[in-house]
Amino acid sequence: MSQAKSAAAANTALIRVQGVNKTFLLGDEPVHALNNIGLSIQAGEYLSVMGPSGSGKSTLLNMLGLLDVPDNGQYWLNGADTVPMSEEQRAVYRRSHIGFVFQSYHLIPRLSASENIELPLILAGIAPAERKRRLAPVIERLGLGSRAGHLPNQLSGGQRQRVAIGRAIIMKPRLLLADEPTGNLDSQSGAEVVQLLEELNADGITLVVVTHDADLGRRASRRIRMVDGVIVSDDCTPSSGTQSRTDQSDAP
Amino acid sequence: MIRSRDQLGFSIRALLRQRFRTLMQLIAMSIGVLAVVLLTGLGEGARQYVLGEFSVLGKDILIMLPGRKETSGGMPPMTGEGTRDITLQDAQSLLRLPEVERIAPLVVGNAEISRGARSRETLVLGTNSTFFDIRHIQLARGQILPELPLDQPSPVCVIGTTLKQELFAAEPALGQWVGIDTYRCRVIGILADTGTGLGMNMSEALIMPVASSMQLFNTEGVFRVMIDVRSAMGMGVLSRQIEDIMRERHDGQLDVTLITPDSLLKAFDSILSVLTFAIAGIGAISLFVAGVLIMNMTLITVSQRTAEIGLLKALGASSREVRQLFVTEAVMLSLFGALLGTLLAEILLWLVRIRYPEIPFAAPLWATVAATAIAVGCGFLFSWIPASRAAHMAPVTALQHQNGK
Ligand SMILES: Nc1ncnc2c1ncn2[C@@H]1O[C@H](COP(=O)(O)OP(=O)(O)O)[C@@H](O)[C@H]1O
Ligand SMILES: [Mg+2]
Fold it and tell me: Which residue in A231, B93, B279, B374 is deepest, having the highest Cβ count within 10 Å?
C-alpha cells in the first residue's frame, strides 16, 4: 500500500480519483459509464460537470458520493482509500463528509420541512437539544422560517430544493454534490438555489454541480466536460486561484 | 447510531402520517387475530358447555334406559322381540343393592298446561324428590316434590320460570291450580332460573310426581332411571349386579342399557377432540392468512419506499438501521393489530354471551397470547426478509426507484 503517497495526496486534495472504470449492462450491451477517470479536487473548489445525456455525469457524482463503487481504480476521499471500505464504513463516511442534492429533491413526504432537514442528525444519533440548536440557524439561512412546519407537498419546487440543501449541509460536510439541482425548477427559483449553493461554497464547502444548463455551468471556477464516460475537457478560470489539474492519462 | 427513541418516533410518524395504509394493515392484522380469538372463544365455550352438561350428572350416577344398545355398535334388537318397559317396581327393586343409595325414575312427555284462558304445550317431567338432588336443581320459591312412595300419585307440581311467566305473568303462582290436559294439580314450587340441562330447557318444564305422570301419559314404563351410587368405586361390578336383577325380573332377558357418565364422556370425547382439532385448524388457517397479508403489506411498503431506503442510506444510515426502522414499523403494526383484534373478539364474545347466557363463550388466555405472539412474530419475520433485501441494495439502485413512481 502506498501509504506515503496517499497521505501526500490528502495534504493537497480533498478528492483524488485514479483510473476509475464503471461498466453497466444495458440488456446484453456493456455501457462504459466511466472510462478511466482521473481527477483531483482541492478543498473549497467549485466544479461544474457538463456533457450530453448518458455521458456518465451522474455515475461520476454517485461514485464521488460513495453511493456507488467503481469496478476498478482508486478513490481517496479526505485521505482515506474508499474502494476497499465496507458498505457500513461508506455509510458513516457519507453521513459525516458528504451532502447530496438531487434533481427530484428526494424529501420524505410525510415529514415536515424541518423534520426532513433534521433527519441526518437523527440518523447520527445526536441528542434532541443539540439537534434543535443546530437546526435553527440552518432554517434561518435557508429563509424557510415560516414554512418549517409544512410538508413537502405544501412547498414550491424552489422551497423543496432549499429544504434538500438544508438537509445536505446540516452535518457540516466538506463536500456538497448536486445532481442537476435546478433541473426541475423555473429560472427564478433555479437562480435562488444556485445563489444559495454558491454562498455555501464561498463559506468553504467544496461544491460539485452536475448540470445541463450552460449558463449555470459557466459560473463555476472549474468546468469539466464529459462525453461517453470520458473527461474531455477540464478548464480552470485563472482567477479561481486553484492550481489543480486533472490526472487524465492517455485519453483515447 | 440512531437513538431508539428517535427510531420509535420515526416509525410512529410513518404509521400516523400514512393513515390509509396503516388502517388497511391494521385491519388485515386484526382480522387474523380476531378469527383466532373468536373461534377459540366459541369453541372453548361449546366445549365447556358440553362438559358442564355432563358434570351436572356427577361422577357417581348410573343411568338405566329400556332397550339394549350394544356399545360395540350393533343394531338395537327388534322392539317386537320383547323389549319390556322398566316399571316403577323394577326401579324400586334396585334399592335392594347396598351400593345403590337412591334412585330417581324419569317419565318425559308433552302436555297442554292451562290456567284460566291461558294455555301452553310444554315438557312434563314425572319424577321424585331425589331427582332435584341428583340434578342439583334449585328452587326460586316454594318446595320440591314431596317424598312419596314411587307409586303414589299426588296432584302437585313444580314449574319453571318461563312457564310460570306465561301462565301467571306477575301474579303469584304458589298454591294455584293448573290444568294438565284433563288433570289438575297445585303449584308448590318454582324453579330457579338456571337454564338448560342435558338438552332439556327446564325453565319451560313442569315437574310432577312420577306416578301422576304415568297416569297422565297412560304408560307403565319409565323413560330413564337415574341411580345414585354410594361410591364411584366398583361401578363396573355394580352395573353387572343391576343387570342381573333386571335380567331376573325380565324373564332372563337383558333388555336394559346402563350408561355411566364415564362412558358418556368417552362417547363425546371423540366429538370434543374433533371440535378442538377443527378449531385449531381454522385458527391456524386464519393466522396463516394474516401472516401472508402482513408479508404482502410489507413487500408493498418496502417496494413503495425503496427510494426512501436509498435516501436514508445516502444520508448515512447503515443497512442494519434501515432494516430496524422497517421491522419496528411492522412489529408495531402487528402489535396494534393484535390488540385491536383481541378487543373486537372480546366485544363479539361478550355480545354472544348476552345472547346465549347459558354457554360460557370466552377465549382462553393461551389463545389470546398465542395469537398475539404469532402476529408479532409474523410481523417481525415477514418484514425482516424484504427489509433486509432492500437494506442491502446499493444506495444508487434504491434511489433510482423514485423514477418509477
Ligand atoms: N444502474 C444502471 N444500470 C444500467 N445502466 C446504467 C445505470 N446507471 C447508468 N447507466 C448507464 O450509464 C450511462 C451513464 O449514465 P448517467 O451517469 O446517468 O448519465 P448522465 O447523468 O450523464 O445522463 C448511461 O448510458 C446509462 O444508461
Ligand atoms: Mg444524470
Answer: A231
- Inter-chain CB proximity A123 and B312 less than 8 Å: yes
The CB of A48 under 6 Å from ligand 1? The reply is no
CA distance to partner chain B, nearest, from residue A7 (Å): 25
Q: Which atom of ligand 1 is nearest to the CA of A52?
A: 22
C-alpha cell at A82: 474508499
Work out the minimum CA distance from A251 to partner chain B, whole angstroms.
Answer: 27
Cβ proximity of A168 and A99 under 8 Å: yes
CA distance A96 to chain B (A): 8
pLDDT on residue A229 = 94
Q: What is the mean pLDDT of chain A?
A: 88
Residues B246 and B239: their CA atoms lie apart, in Å, by 11
The whole-number average pLDDT for the span B68-90 is 63
Residue-number span of the structural domain to which A213 is assigned = 2-250
Q: What's the number of CA atoms in the CB half-sphere (13 Å) around residue B281? A: 6
Q: What DSSP element (H or E) covers A47?
A: strand A46-50
A35, A37, A59, A71: which to mutate for ligand 1, most atoms within 8 A of CB? A59
Q: Which residues, other chains included, contact A100 with Cβ-Cβ below 8 Å and sequence gap of 6+?
A: A65, A67, A168, A177, A178, A179, B314, B315
CA distance B332 to B379: 8
Q: Is the pLDDT of residue A122 over 60?
A: yes
Question: Residue A59 CA: which ligand 1 atom is closest?
Answer: 17
Q: Does A124 touch chain B (CB under 8 A)?
A: yes
Q: For residue A78, what are the CA distances in angstroms to A8, A12, B70, B310?
A: 11, 10, 94, 24
What angle, 0 to 180 degrees and rounded to 10, lies between the N-to-C axes of helices B319-355 and B261-304? 140
Burial code (b: 16+ CB inside 10 Å, e: under 16) for A165-194 equals: bbbbbbbebbbbbbbbbbebbeeebbebbb
* CATH number of residue A55's parent domain: 3.40.50.300
Q: pLDDT grade, residue B75 (50/70/90)?
A: very low
Q: What per-residue confidence (pLDDT) applies to B59?
A: 63
Q: What is the dihedral of CA B275, B281, B284, B285, to 10 degrees?
A: -120
Number of domains in chain A: 1
Closest ligand by atom to B397 CA:
1
Residue B79's pLDDT band (boundaries 50, 70, 90)?
very low
Q: Indicate the pTM of the whole model.
A: 0.66
Tens of pLDDT, residue by residue over B292-307, are 776 777 677 777 778 8
Size of interface A-B (CB pairs under 8 A): 76
Tell me the three state secondary structure of residue B391.
Answer: helix
Q: What would the pLDDT profile of B15-37 be if each residue is shown by its tens digit?
A: 887 787 788 778 878 888 888 88
- Residues of B with a Cβ under 8 Å from any A Cβ are 1-3, 6, 10, 13-14, 17-18, 307-308, 310-321, 392, 394-396, 399, 402
Instruction: Indicate yes or no: CB of B402 within 8 angstroms of CB of A106.
Output: yes
Confidence of residue B264 (pLDDT cuts 50, 70, 90): low
